[in-house]
Specification:
2 helices; alpha+beta; 28% helix; 103 residues; single chain
């Protein structure tokens, strides 16, 4: 029998294809482009998205199990452009980090 923590961990990974599909399938040239992701902890990941004009790459920290349609729609529709949510990055893969783990 699988331990409950392991079941939750597997369930979180089951969500990843749907999250990626949402970021890629209906993208228009005016939306950030999905570049990739890194699992950063249990139920946490950093999504990498490039600004529509290619000027910067955002590292967006999210809780995987809380990443539903509303949060993804906000990311795609310009939420990343809000400078109040942007922090300097020491991550070589992105220019700024946007912490959305509280959503």
């Amino acid at each position: 029998m699988t331990a409950p923590r392991q079941d939750h961990h597997q369930g979180v990974f089951d969500d990843l294809p749907g999250i990626i599909r949402t970021l890629v399938v209906d993208r228009t040239p005016y939306q950030p482009a999905f570049k990739g992701l890194v699992i950063t902890g249990i139920d946490r990941m950093r999504l990498y998205l490039t600004a529509p004009d290619g000027s910067r790459t955002y590292g967006t920290d999210v809780i995987i199990s809380h990443t539903g349609p509303g949060l993804l729609a906000g990311i795609i529709s310009g939420f990343l452009d809000n400078e109040h949510f942007q922090n300097p990055s020491d991550d070589p893969l992105c220019d700024v980090v946007v912490d959305l783990t509280s959503y």
